Hints:
Layout: H1 2-31, E1 60-64, E2 67-75, E3 78-83, E4 105-110, H2 130-141, H3 143-157, E5 162-167, H4 169-180, E6 185-191, H5 206-211, H6 219-229, H7 240-257, H8 274-283, H9 290-293, E7 300-305, H10 312-321, E8 326-330, H11 343-346, H12 348-360
Parallel strand pairs: 3-4, 3-5, 5-6, 6-7, 7-8
Antiparallel strand pairs: 1-2, 2-4
Helix pairs in contact: 2-3, 2-8, 3-4, 6-7
Amino acid sequence: MKKTIKFVLIGIGGVVVLAGIAAVYMFWQMGQPLYKFGSVKTAENLRSPLEPPEQPDSSVWRVESDISLHFDVYGKGKPVVIIHGGPGIPYANAWKGLKSLEQQHTFYYYHQRGAGNSTRPIDRFESKNYPKNMTQLEQTLGISAQIADIERIRRILKEDKLLLIGHSFGGFIAALYAAEFPERAEKLILVAPAGMLTPPRKENNIFDAVRSRIPEKELPKYDSLVKEYFNFGDIFSKTDDDLVDLHTQIGHYLLKGMGYDISLMEIPPTPGGWSSFAVYFSIGKSPDYRDAVANITAPTLILHGDDDDISLNGSKKYEEFIPNAKFISIGCSDTTSVSGHFIFDDCPDQFAEAVREFLTNE
């Protein structure tokens, strides 16, 4: 009997050890970037080929057999693809700062997969296999998939090279595309690009920066929300709608911290859910893409608002590590206006002037 009990205890102990190893592996994996630079161009971690399928509906871009991207188009002339930020927050309207350029260029504002009116391929995960879910999330909605979509868009448009404008987190994705496909990026404009090129530090952590601008009475609620926002241990129990709600709530605080009306988060289109959180798994806890963006050969312009001090350190990193990048800080002619994170609407005339000069300068 004692021998039997001993074997039972050994068996239980083995299960506990394996469970512990699995837990350690899970948290280690969460810290490791799922996106590896260069993997998109070689199609190593994609669920579909880079070559897009047939395009039966001209009102959307069909990038995979089961995924279509909604886009709004303005203007005429040479195509320019606009990559929105967020992550996962498409624009409700065309940028005021590009309206005067619509006689020379066609601007495509597309909704990234999993956000806005584009296909949302994941509602919930049924499996409890954490590593498997992480892999599926990266292949379906992560940075690898987002970069691949830009290349598919280029092929759908039948352009040899793309003119790209990326804002905030979209600037980060645009830079990675230009780094993976340097021969396919003609010119690159990064508008207040997200500070994701280097491992996080206090001075480029937007959540810490925003916290310093929140009234003290609101801090307990904010801290609780941020904790839940990054509670990745429990994330696969949530639905896409759950994450949309969480992303919207945190967005209210981020907008408020940057000096904008929080009602902007309530204007359609609907933000991403899983697509917004997929990028965090993609880059891991300590992203470092300095060597990656050094591969960019396209002329690069970095535009930043004079009053957008929260994301300034991040933007300056792009100037430092992208070869021959040019940095311009924009202020509004009306000194009572704020030149913030959304400078294309805050200071449309000055923004248009900088973009026009860059796009037309050979």
